[in-house]
Amino acid sequence: MWIRTLFPIAVLALAPSCTTGPPEPTGAGSANPVVSQQQELVPGYTHSLAKSWFNPGPGAHDAVRGNVDKTVGDYGVFAVDRVTGVARAIPNAGAPCLSLPSYGSSPAEHNSEARRYLVSAGVPAEQLTFAQANAIVTGGGPTDDPASDQISSHAYVTTFQRMLKGIEVIDSIAWVRLDSVG
User: Which domain covers residue 162, as residue numbers?
Assistant: First the structure.
């Protein structure tokens, strides 16, 4: 379990366009003594709001719920679990970042920018292995005429697996979703 917490990134960057500058509250990005102690054993990474491109928006304030530190704003929530170190950036419905197209014109472009984002945030490049872009799509239409279905792609989400000294860390995964601003 202790290796799993060294690279706790979930839904890291949902939208740089939601960023208007560094957010004022810093609670969700506070140091985690459990994860910090583990990082001394094996070099790793812990995500924080300060390293993220996510902006929770106006009205951002800190909140604590159980073992989770949160920064809650009009655009969404950035949360860090103090026990596991897992970080999540979750946009609210109607957040500006959700109306923008995904970064890049292909999954490969999104994967490349997602890798650049993680490395610039402090993830050791050699620990990022397999990158897989998945599309978020919606569709619909009349059931009696499947040919008229309308399907549209909304975003890519790139998933990275982590590797330490040539060994894949099964439960250490990062998800990155970037909008057209990059």
Answer: 4-141+148-176
- Report the C-alpha gap between 9 and 29 in whole angstroms: 12
Token couple for 120: 């610039």
Give, for all 182 residues of the chain, the pLDDT tens digit.
333 333 444 334 333 445 443 334 444 444 544 444 444 445 667 889 999 999 899 999 999 999 999 999 999 999 999 888 889 999 999 899 888 888 888 889 999 999 999 999 988 888 898 788 888 887 888 888 878 888 777 788 899 988 888 888 888 888 898 988 76
Residue 182 lies in a domain: no
102 belongs to a structural domain: yes
Instruction: Count the domains in the chain.
Output: 1
Question: Alpha-carbon distance 97 to 180, whole Å?
Answer: 9
Report the 10 Å Cβ neighbour count for 151. Answer: 9
Quick one: CA dihedral 54, 59, 62, 68, positive or negative? negative
pTM for this entry: 0.70
Distance CA 153, CA 137 (A): 4
Establish if 44 belongs to a structural domain: yes
